[in-house]
Give the backbone structure.
Amino acid sequence: MDLYGHRANQLARYFNKRLNERISPHGLYTSQWGIILYLYQRGECTQVELCQYLCVEAPTITRTLSRMEEMGWIIRGEGKDKRQRLISLTDKAYEMFPKWSAESYNLEQEAMQNIDKEELEIFKKVLLQMMKNLE
């Protein structure tokens, strides 16, 4: 029996462990990297959007965002109403982004060694379809 979800989860664990080893010296952890990357691509978002994107509960995101705010990586500003807070990156985070991104990119290149481009395209397509199936 081949459990593809389990294998994908194990791959994510290996990747997270190795990425933590590379980015933690730069003051960031993989749980925060996903938030940084999302905000870098989007500019800003709400906490609810982050919860949906990362598939985590609100208390988890709240704790992570509080730590990131203390570290000076994010700012939580006013949203459309008082209940909504918009989250965005600080200048400090934008300055560090190239270092974090390079570490992530280099790790991905290492993980993809000896895999043909065609195989990677199929892998990407399968992953996206599996994610869509589970939404």
